[in-house]
Write a structure and sequence with these properties.
The protein is mainly beta and about 160 residues long. The chain has two helices and nine strands; from the N terminus they run E-E-E-E-E-E-E-E-E-H-H.
Length: about 160
C-alpha cells in the first residue's frame, strides 16, 4: 500500500488522491505563537531573506526544521490561516518560521495555522509542499519529527 496509507497519490502527475479513491489522512497544524505589526522594509528571520513590502502583520508559527519542516521551504512553503493562503516569509528556523499575514489581518496568537491537510477547504496539501520544495509528498509526511504531538481521530 505504501503512500496510499497516508491517502496520497503515488503518481501525482497522473492524478490527485481523489482520482484514486484516496483521502489524505494526515493534517499538520500549529497555533500562531504571536502576531506583530511590522513596518515596510523590515527583514524577517535569519539573513532577512524576506523583507516586508508594506506595513503588515506577521505571525510566528512554532514549528521548524527540528520538527521536520523543510528548511528549503524558505519563502515558498504554503500555509493557511482562517481559510486564507499564505507563504513562509523568510528563513525556516530550527523551531519556528514567520508568515506575512498582510496589512489588513486580524489574526491573533492562538489561531490555527494549517501546513497541510486534505485540501478540501483550500488548505495546502502535502503535494503542495512537495512541489514548493522540489521533493515528493512521501518525504513531506514522513519527515515530521517526534516533537510534534500526534492526535489520532477515528478508528
Amino acid at each position: 500500500p505504501g503512500l496510499a496509507v497516508y491517502g496520497l497519490s503515488p503518481v501525482p502527475q497522473l492524478g490527485d488522491p481523489q482520482s484514486f479513491g484516496l483521502t489524505p489522512a494526515m493534517t499538520l497544524s500549529a497555533d500562531l505563537a504571536v502576531t506583530k505589526r511590522m513596518p515596510a522594509g523590515q527583514g524577517l528571520s535569519y539573513g532577512h531573506q524576506y523583507v516586508t513590502s508594506q506595513d503588515t502583520t506577521v505571525g510566528v508559527v512554532p514549528m521548524g526544521y527540528a520538527d521536520g519542516i523543510p528548511r528549503n521551504a524558505t519563502n515558498v512553503g504554503p500555509v493557511s490561516v482562517s481559510g486564507e493562503r499564505y507563504t513562509v516569509s523568510g528563513r525556516v528556523c530550527m523551531d519556528q518560521f514567520v508568515i506575512d499575514l498582510g496589512p489588513a489581518s486580524s489574526a491573533r496568537a492562538g489561531e490555527r495555522v494549517t501546513l497541510f491537510g486534505t485540501g478540501e477547504a483550500g488548505d495546502p496539501t502535502a503535494q503542495d509542499w512537495a512541489q514548493a520544495t522540489e521533493t515528493i509528498s512521501y518525504e513531506i509526511v514522513t519527515r515530521i519529527g517526534s516533537r510534534v504531538p500526534r492526535v489520532y481521530i477515528g478508528g
